[in-house]
Amino acid sequence: MKNLIILAFFALFAFACSSSEGEKAGSEPTAEAPKVDGEKIYKTYCVTCHGIYGDMGASGAFNLKTSVLPVEERINVITNGRKAMTPFKDLLTPEKIKAVAEYTLTLKQ
Ligand code: HEC
Known about the structure:
mainly alpha; binds heme C; Cytochrome Bc1 Complex, Chain D, domain 2; 5 helices; elongated
């Protein structure tokens, strides 16, 4: 009888462990979709011309500190490019373009 109780306890313990682990592994990718970090994208793709503060102006790049372009227009410029600026539609998803466009707004003075 005592053995049975111990066995039951272990069975319950093992069940509790496996179920909570299963839940964790299963929910991770769905519950927390990878967050798009506009700053990281900017520092990867944009600093070469715009500089870390947006005012470097390499290859005639616009000064993002003084740019008054609304976010929809920025998305358009980033997606399709403009003059010396290369389009990013093949490099970045629309979600990432939106994130980086929003980040450029924070460079404004
Ligand atoms: C190859 C150099 C280069 C890179 C890389 C580059 N840009 Fe540009 N960008 C430019 C140039 C040049 C212009 C001005 C285009 C023009 O004269 O019409 C510009 C213009 C812009 C504008 C329009 C500003 C305004 O007021 O009209 C935005 C917004 C912008 N860039 C954002 C970005 C972002 C965000 C990235 C990174 C995803 C990026 N750029 C990467 C060169 C670059």
